Amino acid sequence: MVAEAEVVFQQSLPVVLDIDGVTSAVVSPLSSPKLGIRRPTASVSGGLSTSPVQEEDFDSSIPVYVPTIRSGSYADIGPKRSMEDEHICVDDLSSQLGCLFELPKPSAFYAVFDGHGGSEAATYVKQNAIRLLFEDDNFPQTSEVNSVYVEEVKSSLRNAFLQADLALAEDCSISSSSGTTALAALISGRYVLLMVANAGDCRAVLCRKGKAIEMSHDHRPINIPERIRVEESGGVIEDGYLNGELSVTRALGDWDMKRPHGSNSPLISEPEIKQITLTEEDEFLVIGCDGIWDVLTSQEAVSVVKRGLNRHGDPARCARELVMEALRLNTFDNLTAVVVCFVTVDREGEAVVPLEKKRCCSLTPEAFRSLRNLLDG
């Protein structure tokens, strides 16, 4: 672990957050031989959705919308010999961080980390992500969400990614060839701001009236802006891989592929940040590692989750169903899915959760006669 002097903070959190206590990963047993770590097949089924998020400024004129937030997650080792994914689910940040840390309500935090070259980098970032974000001096302590709050949170998210990257370089217990992609989603305030920071090829997809709205871009060599940036930084793309090794162009760690701190490098940890103000048209958010998106489009994933919510209303079951669908389609990687539901609250203050639909069944002649006799007395 990095010594306290190596990552300096002026403020300490009032409560130490037990990350393991607020995540709900379920990992399946070993299923098949190990595949390559740095050069997995980079096929994408059906391409990306045609509806990326339209970047918008914060708008306080939008009617106040305060949903009940609930989430579920599921993780599976897939066809690999080791599990290198990690994730975080915190539905109520205020209760986790303590009363001395002021946050807009509701506030929630979710993240997925897809490790490579071993699990060390992903595990370290999971254990330190919330500390790095909320101990940032510039993270706003306020109950109000406004344009100033939005810009300060963006700055803190960006700084948390960069600090995590530096910490991985300084920790001698973590191999320089170990790295992780990272995607974090922060939900906050009465106007329900959703902010997503991404470095790598994990993906966040918002469901708005059944339609997939992508909240992140995949940072891969096939992404034209990323390819241009890599080549302008002196990197090369060989067979679809950065410098012939990595299938992503942004990641935390991987210091054997990065230049010294402060130097321009083809592989960067700078996150791309997108934001949107949620409304009653927004149903849920899906966050997943690339093991999901290698075989499912954004719209296909949204459809799987929506069907599940209509049947049983359980986000954890939906996350499992999404992972199982990716396995059925022969994904080659570890799998992690997080489903975050925005539940409308009715006039009596009760959350409106879809009831599980009962399946129709046929009675045997004998059962029908028994039922008839019972009804006839």
UniProtKB/TrEMBL annotation:
Protein keywords: Hydrolase, Magnesium, Manganese, Metal-binding, Protein phosphatase
SMART domains membership: PP2C_SIG, PP2Cc
Reactions catalysed: O-phospho-L-threonyl-[protein] + H2O = L-threonyl-[protein] + phosphate; O-phospho-L-seryl-[protein] + H2O = L-seryl-[protein] + phosphate
Pfam family membership, one: PP2C
Domain called PPM-type phosphatase: residue spans: 70-342
Domain of life, per lineage: Eukaryota
Gene3D superfamilies, sorted: PPM-type phosphatase domain
Cofactor requirement: Mg(2+); Mn(2+)
Region forming the signal peptide: none
The protein, known as: protein-serine/threonine phosphatase
Taxonomic lineage: Eukaryota, Viridiplantae, Streptophyta, Embryophyta, Tracheophyta
